[in-house]
Amino acid sequence: MLALHGAGAPIFTDDTMTTRSKGPSAGLGWLTNGITVGFRHPKPLLGGAAFMVVACLLPSLFTLPMQFHATRTMTPMNPATFGWAMAFAMLVGLLIVPLYAGYLQLVDAAERGLPARALDIFNPYRQGEALRLIGYGLAILVAYLVVIGIIVAATGGGIASWYMELLTAQATHQPPPALPQGFGIAVALFIVLGLFMMGFYAISLGQVALRRRSVFGAIGDGAVGALKNLLPLIVFAGCLFLCWIVMAIAFALLALVLALLGALIGPWLVFVLMIPLYIAMMLTVFAVMFGMMYYLWRDVCGDDTVTGLAQTTAA
């Protein structure tokens, strides 16, 4: 069943969903469509990305001063303080999950030619869907922690203590501790997990945000859809890695040019030019990231045949 939601973006309420498997070239399509979606709809998507950046930086206002104090005094952060800081960051992260869903709905509306505004990312809060989406975020967080715990336990459990020792060494400016036994195997497992989670999260978030699937139904669709599309996910990850390298080189060259201009004119010029460039890069990254997630979901679970129907209904 098709229903209108928010700014006119179509929302599907059918619980009998199927996931499709795509060929390897689909991974390249997800990347290219994600890159171009922001150029096709710059006003709503970059505006929505600006709200997203502000929301995602809010936890840093609480945790960064504590980290700065620990570094300046060369004393390790109190474990209780560290725990409270992490709990606060996770709480804010859960409150941001409805904004992720709202941004995905914004991309969907823009791509379907329906009315789309930057403020539409707050629609899940306005329309009473925030609790369901926060529940989804909590379920995803628990799943992440369980899988990470299994990997850490399977590799000997020394990684957790090594990580805490590493944080202490960084705070006190000491040499980093030696890598624990089983570190290489854990890294390989985390890479495989990250590859799977890219598809899992994009599909499950799309299902819960755009199809109005139940939390566990969306999670099931995400797991099945990611398993069915491991090959295009590998292609997607490889292409994405190459794009990050190209972008890092371009950013480094740009920073070098600005540094030379700063040496000739003054350091203030670097500061004045780098800040807007950095902000523009962050906004672009958000738009591209959610564009890729949207096209990944649409290839695996979406139904393009309803586009014309959705536009007719909205009119």
TrEMBL record:
<feature type="transmembrane region" description="Helical">
    <location>
        <begin position="183"/>
        <end position="210"/>
    </location>
</feature>
<protein>
    <recommendedName>
        <fullName>DUF4013 domain-containing protein</fullName>
    </recommendedName>
</protein>
<feature type="transmembrane region" description="Helical">
    <location>
        <begin position="268"/>
        <end position="290"/>
    </location>
</feature>
<feature type="transmembrane region" description="Helical">
    <location>
        <begin position="82"/>
        <end position="103"/>
    </location>
</feature>
<keyword id="KW-1133">Transmembrane helix</keyword>
<feature type="transmembrane region" description="Helical">
    <location>
        <begin position="133"/>
        <end position="163"/>
    </location>
</feature>
<feature type="transmembrane region" description="Helical">
    <location>
        <begin position="45"/>
        <end position="62"/>
    </location>
</feature>
<feature type="transmembrane region" description="Helical">
    <location>
        <begin position="230"/>
        <end position="262"/>
    </location>
</feature>
<keyword id="KW-0472">Membrane</keyword>
<keyword id="KW-0812">Transmembrane</keyword>
